[in-house]
Design a protein that fits this description.
By secondary structure, the chain is α/β, with parallel strands linked by helices. It is built from 12 helices and 14 strands. The protein has 2 domains: 165 residues, 3-Layer(aba) Sandwich (Rossmann fold); 139 residues, Argininosuccinate synthetase, chain A, domain 2, CATH 3.90.1260.10. A 5-stranded parallel β-sheet has the order 3-2-1-4-5, with helices on both faces. A 5-stranded antiparallel β-sheet has the order 10-9-8-13-14, covered by helices on one side.
C-alpha cells in the first residue's frame, strides 16, 4: 500500500490516526471531510489535516443528497430501531463511505481507513459499505491494530506529537438528522443527563409558553414544503430542526442493543426527523391501502435493523427501499402539527386524492349496515370450528 483515504473529522481519533498512518504505516494520507451538517468550521478542519501531513484534503457538501437519498427513504418507511432510535448516525455512514470509496478509486488509492472503535457500530457500517462498493480496497481500522486502549492513550499520543485536540465531555455525533451524546454520567443508566446533552432541543422549562402550529406538505411521500414554502432537502430539515428544537420536541434517552451485543445508553435529539415521521404517517394514512400500510409496518423493523447493522447497500435493503418507494406514488398531501412543551400532536391532515371518503366514514350518511352481517359470519367461520362435533 502507498495511499489511503481517511474519513476525517478533525476530532481526537482521526487526528491521531492521520499521523499514525503516516508515521507508523508510511502511507500518503488523503483526508476526506464529508459535510453532512455537523455544524463545524470545515476550513479549520482542512487546515488541521494539512498541517499534520495530509497530502491532499477533499471536502464535499453532501447535505442535500444525505437528506434526499438517505433520510427521506427512512421517513417513508417509518424506520426506527427498537421502536425509538431514528437512525441518525446509521443513516449518515453509508453516504460518507460511498463517497470515500469513490474518491479512493479516483485518486488511485490502495486503501480506506476510518476512526471507529472496536466496540461500536460504525466500524461495521463503514466496512460493510466498503466491501459492497469496492471489495478490492484494503481496509485499515487503527483501533483494531494499535496498542492504544482508551481516549486517554490517544490524548497522550496527541500531546507527544503536538496535535491540538479539544477535550469533549461527551462522545458526540452530529449531522442534519440528529445529535447523539454518549459517555460521562450517561454510562450510568440511572443518572439524569446533564445540561451538556442539550444542543438542538431546548429544556422544557425554556420552551415557549404558547403552542406553535406547523404544516408539512409531501409529494410522492417526500417532504417538499413547510408552511407553504418550498425548500431544498437540507434547508427543509434545518427548518424543522429549529422549530422542533425550540419546543423541545424529538429528544429521547434510551439504552440500545448494539450490533456487537452490548447495551449502550445514549441521548438523541432528532427534532426535525420526529416531525417528519409523524407528519408522513398522518398523510399516508389518508392515501395508502390498508393492506399495504400493514405490510409496511411488518417490514419496518427489518429495514431499521438492516440500516442499524450496516447493510444499507445489501440486495435486500435495496429491494425494500424500492418496494417502499412504489407505495408512495399517491402520498401527496399536508399534515398540520401542534408543538408545545416537548409534545407534538397531529391535529390535521389533508390529501386531495386520498382514499378517505367522508361520505363513507360519516355516521350521518347512509350505509347498508346489514352487509356487515355476512362479512362477520364468514370472518368468524373458522373460529367456531373447534366447537363443532
Amino acid at each position: 500500500m502507498s495511499t489511503v483515504v481517511l474519513a476525517y473529522s478533525g476530532g481526537l481519533d482521526t487526528s491521531v490516526i492521520l499521523t499514525w498512518l503516516r508515521e507508523e504505516k508510511g502511507l500518503d494520507v488523503i483526508a476526506f471531510v464529508a459535510d453532512v451538517g455537523q455544524n463545524e468550521d470545515l476550513e479549520a478542519v482542512v487546515a488541521k489535516a494539512e498541517t499534520h501531513g495530509a497530502v491532499k484534503t477533499v471536502v464535499e457538501d453532501l447535505r442535500d443528497p444525505f437528506v434526499e437519498e438517505y433520510v427521506y427513504p427512512l421517513v417513508m418507511a417509518h424506520a426506527s430501531y427498537e421502536g425509538t432510535y431514528l437512525l441518525g448516525t446509521a443513516a449518515a455512514r453509508p453516504i460518507i463511505a460511498k463517497r470515500q470509496v469513490e474518491i479512493a478509486l479516483q485518486e488511485g488509492a490502495d486503501a480506506v481507513a476510518h476512526g471507529s472503535t472496536g466496540k461500536g457500530n460504525d466500524q461495521i457500517r463503514f466496512e460493510l459499505a466498503y466491501r459492497a462498493l469496492a471489495p478490492q480496497l484494503e481496509v485499515i481500522a487503527p483501533w483494531r491494530e494499535w496498542d492504544y486502549q482508551s481516549r486517554d492513550d490517544l490524548e497522550a499520543y496527541a500531546r507527544e506529537h503536538r496535535i491540538p485536540v479539544s477535550s469533549k465531555s461527551y462522545s458526540i455525533d452530529r449531522n442534519l438528522l440528529h445529535v447523539s451524546f454518549e459517555g460521562q454520567e450517561l454510562e450510568d443508566p440511572w443518572a439524569e443527563p446533564g445540561e451538556g446533552t442539550y444542543s438542538l432541543c431546548r429544556p422544557i422549562e425554556k420552551t415557549p409558553e404558547e403552542p406553535e402550529y406547523l404544516e408539512i406538505e409531501f409529494e410522492r411521500g417526500r417532504p417538499r414544503r413547510v408552511n407553504g414554502e418550498e425548500l431544498a432537502p437540507a434547508a427543509l430539515l434545518e427548518r424543522l430542526n429549529a422549530v422542533g428544537g425550540r419546543h423541545g420536541v424529538g429528544r429521547v434517552d434510551i439504552v440500545e442493543n448494539r450490533a456487537i451485543g452490548i447495551k449502550v445508553r445514549g441521548v438523541y435529539e432528532t427534532p426535525g426527523g420526529t416531525l417528519l415521521h409523524a407528519a408522513h404517517r398522518a398523510v399516508e394514512s389518508l392515501c395508502v391501502d390498508r393492506e399495504v400500510v400493514h405490510w409496511k409496518e411488518e417490514i419496518m423493523p427489518r429495514i431499521a435493523n438492516l440500516v442499524y447493522n450496516g447493510h444499507w447497500f445489501s440486495p435486500e435493503a435495496e429491494l425494500f427501499r424500492k418496494a417502499v418507494e412504489t407505495t408512495q406514488t399517491k402520498v401527496n398531501g399536508t399534515a398540520r402539527l401542534k408543538l408545545h412543551k416537548g409534545s407534538m400532536m397531529v391535529v390535521g391532515r389533508k390529501a386531495p386524492e386520498g382514499l378517505y371518503h367522508r361520505r363513507l366514514a360519516s355516521f350521518n350518511e347512509a350505509f347498508s349496515h346489514e352487509d356487515s352481517t355476512g362479512f362477520i359470519r364468514i370472518s368468524g367461520l373458522r373460529l367456531g370450528l373447534r366447537q363443532w362435533n
